[in-house]
Design a protein that fits this description.
The protein has 554 residues and is of the alpha+beta class. The chain contains 17 helices and 15 strands. The strands form four sheets. Strands 4-3-7-6-5 form a five-stranded antiparallel β-sheet, with helices on both faces. A five-stranded mixed β-sheet has the order 9-11-12-14-13. It is a multi-pass membrane protein. It comes from Thermosipho africanus (strain TCF52B). This is Regulator of cell autolysis.
């Protein structure tokens, strides 16, 4: 039987590889990890690796009190993808299971498996995921297996038995584990490449849709603009029909089925009503799933995704349909979710724009004019630029914009917490870094309680002023500092930029800030602008501590 061990193990490893490949192709796993499987969820990676390790033990072959196995495949796999934490989790799961099986090699196998998780995780931590080429993975696994079997040779007694076990199972375990890990790594890289391609195609389509939709944003979100957006989606995707609704009626339906799914009609399908009631997306298949009352309706399958505003309140749905010739794929679901997030942002832009027009606090809103659709359009174009090279950053920057808008539109209190104002300013700076890249950096230092209350929209205009007037050829560094000095809370924004010329007057934004401070604090504040000796500008605001409130915003 020993002559056939390698072949038997390789056959069983092939089955494990197929199971693993199918698992990582599933929408559930892709939804957990995103477009890259590396270190996104170390716990899940560790559990999957531990489960593969258990299978490698269970399907191993017993020989002379030992088990010829491929347990280390799952452990090394988890360590490569998730670093030391995932490698250790997988090692503990599979090695503890091995303890319950007993045998003369139980302790050295326990230690060998733990070592495999640590070594593979350490290499991943040291060199990164891309370091694991097919050949390197093969060599590392060979070395790990030799270390593993060295434990057996040293710890098992008598030595003659240890020698027999080690050198009889050395080749089968080394060849099985090394080939298994190498092929598994190769398969996972292929899956990642597919996911990256899907993400890139998704992002490119979304930005085409976004660019065409934003052009009419100032007119608000209505049936006309909904139709424009739906037609843009239809023309830039493979869907056969696209519909957008509010909470009660169809705003537009383009493509197949538009003869009886008419603009202005009340929502007819139970599936759409269910999404509106639950706030969760839904995949529907077949006429029963679509539940259209028209007998000859060509819609066969679709995705219905909720659209929400900046407060996550539902405002309608996006519906993407196929005819019988189409089929809902995992990539369609991913695309639909990202597209719905983008459309929600566009709708919020329209509402922000309308709110800015109707705002009663004109001076306060004038400070926020830089967050108009024009500014956001330029920012979104910058996001589009990085989407091809760094697509994983796109969601991060879209979230930045969403947070920025939420604060701008809904923060109408007279005072806000310093923590919220700092977060708002940080989001703005992150978007500016996207635009100016290495030419801009910032530091924020807070040495007071972040629950103190200050007027909203104080910090961001100061930072904007530094960028607007201080940007130069080399790096612009902005330092924001909040501290308590004597009886004052001092807020300062310092930069190493070009500085103000003595003949320059204060900008309109700075004048508005000063007027607001005066209306709130009277004479109990100080506002100053200073030029540095070697360039740069420092703007300081000092507010008497006795006027600083702590507690709920008002």
């Amino acid at each position: 039987m020993l002559e056939n061990i390698s072949l038997i193990l390789l056959e069983r490893v092939s089955l494990i590889l197929v199971i693993t490949y199918i698992t990582f192709q599933s929408y559930f796993i892709k939804n957990i990890f995103g477009k890259t499987l590396v270190a996104k969820n170390r716990l899940v990676l560790g559990i999957i690796g531990g489960f593969l390790g258990i299978l490698g033990t269970v399907f191993g072959i017993r020989y002379n009190g030992a088990i010829v196995n491929y347990r280390d495949i799952g452990v090394i796999f988890a360590g490569m993808l998730g670093g030391i934490p995932a490698g250790l989790i997988a090692a503990l799961i599979s090695s503890i299971f091995r303890l319950f099986l007993g045998g003369i090699t139980v302790i050295p196998c326990f230690l060998g498996t733990i070592t495999a998780g640590i070594i593979s995780g350490f290499i991943s931590h040291l060199y990164g995921r891309k370091h694991f080429t097919f050949v390197r993975t093969l060599l590392y696994t060979v070395l790990i297996e030799i270390v593993h079997l060295t434990y057996v040779l040293v710890m098992v007694k008598p030595y003659s038995l240890a020698f027999d076990i080690t050198f009889k199972i050395l080749f089968p375990m080394v060849i099985t584990n090394s080939l298994g890990v190498s092929f598994l790594n190769y398969m996972i890289k292929n899956i990642e490449e597919q996911l990256e391609q899907t993400a890139e195609n998704t992002i490119n389509s979304i930005f085409v849709i976004m660019e065409k939709s934003l052009s009419s944003i100032e007119e608000g979100f209505n049936e006309t603009n909904a139709k424009l957006i739906a037609e843009t989606i239809l023309n830039n995707t493979n869907f056969d029909a696209v519909a957008i609704t509010d909470k009660n009626k169809i705003l537009t339906h383009v493509g197949i089925g538009s003869d009886h799914h008419v603009t202005g009609m009340n929502i007819q399908t139970n599936a759409t009503k269910k999404v509106i009631e639950s706030g969760h997306g839904l995949k529907v298949v077949g006429k029963k799933g679509i539940s259209c009352s028209a007998y000859n309706c060509p819609l066969y399958s679709g995705i219905i995704i909720p659209l929400t505003d900046l407060n996550n309140e539902l405002i309608g749905t996006l519906k993407l349909y196929y005819s019988k010739k189409g089929e809902i794929k995992n990539s369609d679901i991913i695309f639909g979710k990202k597209l719905a997030q983008t459309l929600s942002l566009i709708i919020s832009l329209a509402r922000v724009n309308e709110s800015l027009k109707l705002a009663t606090e004109e001076k306060l809103r004038e400070l926020m004019s830089n967050l108009s659709p024009h500014f956001l359009f330029n920012t979104l174009n910058a996001i589009k630029y990085i989407s091809k090279k760094e697509p994983d950053k796109v969601n991060y920057f879209i979230d930045n914009i969403s947070e920025l808008l939420r604060y701008t539109l809904y923060e109408n209190k007279k005072f806000v917490s310093l923590k919220d104002e700092i977060k708002f300013t940080t989001n703005y700076l992150e978007l500016m870094k996207l635009r100016y890249k290495d030419k801009l950096s910032y530091e924020i230092t807070v040495n007071v309680e972040n629950t103190i209350k200050i007027p909203p929209f104080i910090l961001q205009p100061l930072v904007e002023n530094s960028i607007k007037h201080g940007m130069k050829e080399d790096e612009l560094i902005i330092k924001v500092n909040v501290e308590s000095i004597d009886n004052y809370v001092k807020i300062s924004v310092e930069d190493n930029g070009k500085g103000f010329k003595s003949s320059n007057k204060k900008g309109k934004g700075l004048e508005l800030i000063q007027k607001r401070l005066k209306s709130i604090y009277g004479e109990d504040y100080n506002f100053s602008i200073k030029n540095g000796i070697f360039g740069g500008t420092t703007v300081e605001i000092k507010i008497k501590s006795s006027n600083i409130k702590v507690g709920e915003a008002v």
